[in-house]
């Protein structure tokens, strides 16, 4: 992800949201500054689709909705809007068609250009959204899934899964998923 312009002036959240509706390029917003998003590799897209498909099937019959890459998450405490690769929202009170304020599960497929931001500022921003139960980081160059999850007490933990038969529970939709499910059809 590259900064839209090094000499860019900060803009308001409303200016960003209005501009994003008209833009051909997706941008993320962080405390007044806008950053253009790079495209994804086929491997990246396939992994995200595998995850979204598993979640969408598990969410049938629940109020949870699964979105892939074009719905923003509003991290109000960090004055930011991000486009995660997969996001799940289960709150019927969400009122905006373009972003979620109360997601429960967020997934980022890591790439060289975004990994540092995904692990630092996005992790912190997402942990500060009260509704988020889990944040999943997925490598695309090897089998590795990191699941950051919030316990009922509010404490955050992380678990790493690297074996294809490793299994883990996705909160919100209570779906058991294996690393093999995440990487179905993907070659390293």
UniProtKB/TrEMBL annotation:
<keyword id="KW-0378">Hydrolase</keyword>
<keyword id="KW-0540">Nuclease</keyword>
<protein>
    <submittedName>
        <fullName>Uma2 family endonuclease</fullName>
    </submittedName>
</protein>
<dbReference type="GO" id="GO:0004519">
    <property type="term" value="F:endonuclease activity"/>
</dbReference>
<dbReference type="InterPro" id="IPR012296">
    <property type="entry name" value="Nuclease_put_TT1808"/>
</dbReference>
<dbReference type="Pfam" id="PF05685">
    <property type="entry name" value="Uma2"/>
</dbReference>
<dbReference type="InterPro" id="IPR011335">
    <property type="entry name" value="Restrct_endonuc-II-like"/>
</dbReference>
<keyword id="KW-0255">Endonuclease</keyword>
<feature type="domain" description="Putative restriction endonuclease">
    <location>
        <begin position="14"/>
        <end position="173"/>
    </location>
</feature>
<dbReference type="InterPro" id="IPR008538">
    <property type="entry name" value="Uma2"/>
</dbReference>
């Amino acid at each position: 992800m590259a900064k839209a312009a090094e000499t860019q002036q900060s803009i308001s959240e409303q200016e960003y949201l209005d501009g994003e509706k008209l833009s051909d390029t997706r941008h993320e917003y962080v405390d007044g500054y806008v950053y253009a998003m790079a495209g994804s590799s086929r491997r990246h897209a396939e992994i995200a689709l595998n995850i979204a498909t598993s979640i969408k099937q598990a969410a049938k019959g629940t109020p949870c909705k699964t979105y892939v890459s074009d719905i923003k998450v509003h991290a109000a405490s960090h004055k930011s809007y991000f486009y995660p690769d997969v996001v799940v929202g289960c709150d019927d009170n969400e009122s905006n068609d373009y972003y979620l304020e109360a997601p429960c599960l967020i997934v980022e497929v890591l790439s060289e250009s975004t990994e540092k931001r995904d692990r630092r500022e996005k992790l912190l921003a997402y942990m500060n959204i009260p509704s988020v139960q889990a944040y999943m980081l997925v490598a695309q160059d090897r089998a590795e899934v990191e699941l950051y999850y919030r316990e009922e007490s509010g404490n955050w933990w992380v678990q790493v899964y690297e074996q294809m038969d490793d299994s883990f529970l996705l909160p919100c939709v209570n779906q058991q998923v294996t690393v093999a499910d995440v990487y179905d059809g993907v070659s390293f």
